């Protein structure tokens, strides 16, 4: 994975708990292009790698903007960025990747909750610049402390933004049945946010007649826990060498392989980014990621080694 060194040109607090990082090339040159919905891998102090969506307009080549919510509990990424990374710091990031891209549509609905607003900001900028039909629905607890509130209120597309502040006096949750009612066959729904919010949106969309191919989802965590009660040990076999490695309950496949001297590239460690997806030559995976689609899962021909396990005593991997 190619890397790029950037400098934190500016760090600000937006809303109650979101730090916005403006990243620029150290030599002032243009940054690699990106499309709306893209993210970058950020290499953090201590060695962890986390993914953050780019939330500025895609045509801005002089900077990247990241919005990072301080999570509680945190796996270390948000705390490191909030507490240890300041203006002037140099970070290594990956080049932009997009697993949450816009597609042609008669009308695009952007639904985001909390920090899930970040990729939708770039999408809204692009759709507005293209003169496309769209609406942005932003679900928050309190409007006054919501991140990017001022940016949305002053945007050229402000009349298409709907903020749903469920914790405010007189506020309410997004009326999903009404918002998602009567979908046009060429409409598209893009949703990002916490797992419970995504589940509610997808259930409502299905009830209102949205087809799977009309819906695009960005998740920040896996749908299924990587460790589950009753997990059994299994073996993985490295096809290129015949090396057999035991994967104990509570251990990830990539961890067991690393201990045996076989390094597998990993990034999110939650099954959402696809970095560690590997071909399966034999055996049946127990998928616990949120990256592969249903067709890919059903084929049994690949799996995410950071979180998925095995339904059979042995898996042969194309490594």
TrEMBL record:
GO molecular function, one term: metal ion binding
Start and end residues of each 2Fe-2S ferredoxin-type domain: 234-319
PROSITE patterns per the UniProt record, alphabetical: 2FE2S_FER_1, 2FE2S_FER_2, FAD_FR
Protein's recorded name: Oxidoreductase
Key words of the record: 2Fe-2S, Flavoprotein, Iron, Iron-sulfur, Metal-binding, Oxidoreductase
Organism: Hydrogenophaga crocea
Keyword Phosphoprotein: no
Pfam families linked to this entry: Fer2
Domain FAD-binding FR-type as annotated: residue spans: 1-103
Residue ranges the record marks as coiled coil: none
């Amino acid at each position: 994975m190619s890397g790029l060194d950037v400098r934190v040109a500016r760090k600000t607090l937006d809303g109650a708990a979101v730090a916005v990082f403006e990243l620029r090339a150290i030599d002032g040159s243009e940054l690699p292009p990106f499309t709306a919905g893209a993210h970058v891998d950020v290499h953090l102090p201590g060695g962890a790698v986390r993914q953050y969506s780019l939330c500025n307009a895609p045509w801005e080549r002089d900077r990247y903007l990241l919005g990072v919510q301080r999570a509680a509990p945190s796996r270390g990424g948000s705390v490191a960025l909030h507490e240890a990374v300041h203006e002037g710091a140099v970070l290594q990031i990956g080049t932009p990747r997009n697993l949450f891209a816009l597609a042609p549509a008669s009308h695009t609905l952007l639904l985001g909750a909390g920090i899930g607003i970040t990729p939708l900001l770039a999408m809204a900028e692009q759709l507005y610049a293209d003169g496309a039909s769209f609406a942005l629905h932003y679900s928050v607890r309190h409007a006054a402390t919501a991140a990017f509130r001022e940016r949305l209120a002053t945007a050229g597309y402000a009349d298409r933004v709907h903020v749903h502040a469920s914790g405010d006096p007189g506020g309410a949750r997004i009326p999903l049945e009404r918002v998602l009612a009567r979908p046009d066959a060429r409409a598209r729904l893009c949703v990002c946010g916490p797992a419970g919010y995504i589940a509610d949106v997808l259930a409502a969309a299905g009830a209102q007649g949205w087809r799977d191919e009309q819906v695009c989802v960005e998740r920040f965590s896996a749908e299924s826990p990587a460790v589950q009660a009753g997990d059994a040990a299994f073996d993985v076999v490295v096809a290129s060498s015949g090396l057999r490695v035991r994967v104990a309950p509570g251990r990830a496949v990539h961890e067991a392989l690393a201990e045996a001297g076989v390094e597998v590239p990993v990034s999110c460690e939650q099954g959402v980014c696809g970095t560690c997806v590997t071909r399966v030559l034999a055996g049946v995976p127990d998928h616990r990621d949120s990256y592969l689609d249903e067709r890919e899962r059903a084929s049994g021909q690949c799996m995410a080694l950071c979180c998925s396990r095995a339904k059979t005593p042995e898996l042969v991997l194309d490594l």
